[in-house]
Specification:
Dihydrodipicolinate Reductase, domain 2, oxidoreductase activity, nine-stranded mixed beta sheet, NAD(P)-bd_dom_sf, single chain, six-stranded parallel beta sheet, nucleotide binding, GFO_IDH_MocA-like_dom, 335 residues, alpha/beta, Rossmann fold
Length: 335
């Protein structure tokens, strides 16, 4: 029997989205544990073109055909948010492991359904928050656990960009799970939950809903209340200059991540300040997508438990849902 660590997870791609072509498919090719076996699109010409570009053996003109392929172990789903639940469950029922783009679903109830289906089928279901798999996050957790910056007092985060003029963008369809909270607000929220190891007790969010943009939240500013009076203040948007930031504030010092969610190489450096003394930490360079895929393969082959369980994604969806409700109803929502 070949040594397990040489086993390759055979991937099928459900839909030729930009994130798949630009980030995840190249990462599968770079990963130690994955191979690209098939790609599917609702347009066969499109999937054939992508297959030839990446040298993928099979191209399908429907998602159904890809799910019926017995040579595929795992699928990656980069479809619009409202299609995540349906296709993830269909893939799970076809016996495939599933890596699904974030946010996992539109609601925590949908996410629960997906998690239950995966548990029943005995397959791995993961939400594709790639940033958490970068080594810098383990280092930050170690600094926090070591007590160097004292007790955690507050977290501040932001993730914004500007696509306001791209009026055909799928992020502008509310019924498709559009809006800035689902698209980028989920990052600072997931980071705070990860760093604190807790769930917020309440959220209050103010948003700009734009009629010109399908009525979605184009910009949102929020407060998530964690136990012990620790707050995450965050903003997210698709209507402003590109910004990414995370500041972790302790009683004795701070940690600042200038490129909080997409860094991989030297741009993954962060600053630790303790009693006015500043230093720069440069974690080992890594492609966060490759790290995510290698973690996923290890879980799929049963070598170690998943780092982030479907239950974590369900909780994350509950927080996002509460944020959206708070923004729409202009009130504080308790969880």
């Amino acid at each position: 029997m070949e040594h397990s660590s040489n086993r390759q997870l055979r991937w099928g791609i459900v839909g030729c989205a930009g994130i798949a072509i630009n980030a995840v498919m190249p990462a599968i090719q770079q990963s130690a544990r994955g191979s690209l076996s098939a790609v599917s699109s609702r347009n066969l010409d499109k999937s054939r073109e992508v297959a030839s570009r990446f040298d993928i053996p099979k191209a399908y003109g429907s998602y159904e055909e890809l799910l019926a392929d017995g040579d595929i172990d795992a699928v990656y789903i980069p479809l619009p948010n409202h299609l995540h639940k349906d296709w993830a469950i269909r893939a799970i029922e076809a016996g495939k492991h599933v890596l699904c783009e974030k946010p996992l679903a539109l609601t925590s109830a949908e996410a629960e359904e997906m998690a239950a289906a995966a548990a029943k089928a005995g397959v791995v279901l993961a939400e594709a928050f790639m940033y958490r798999h970068h080594p810098r996050w383990s280092r930050i957790r170690a600094i926090l656990d070591g007590g160097e910056i004292g007790e955690l007092r507050a977290i501040r985060g932001a993730f914004t960009f500007n696509n306001a003029e791209d009026l055909a963008n799928i992020r502008l369809k509310p019924e498709w799970g559009g809006g800035s909270l689902y698209d980028v607000g989920c990052y600072p929220l997931s980071a705070a939950r990860f760093l604190l190891g807790q769930e917020p007790e309440a959220v209050t969010v103010l948003a700009q809903f734009s009629d010109r943009h399908g009525g979605v939240d184009m910009m949102a500013s929020g407060l998530a209340e964690f136990p012990g009076g620790v707050g995450l203040t965050f903003d997210c948007g698709m209507w402003t200059e590109h910004r990414q930031l995370l500041e972790i504030v302790g009683s004795e010092g701070t940690i600042e991540l200038p490129l909080a969610f997409t860094a991989g190489g030297e741009d993954a450096a962060f600053t630790v300040t303790v009693h006015g003394e500043k230093r720069t930490e440069v974690p080992e360079a890594a492609n966060p997508y490759v790290a995510e895929l290698d973690d996923f393969a290890a879980a799929a082959f049963g070598e170690r438990p998943q780092r982030f369980s479907p239950a974590d994604a369900v909780k994350g969806m509950a927080v996002l849902e509460a944020c959206l409700a708070s923004a729409r109803e202009r009130r504080r929502v308790t969880l």
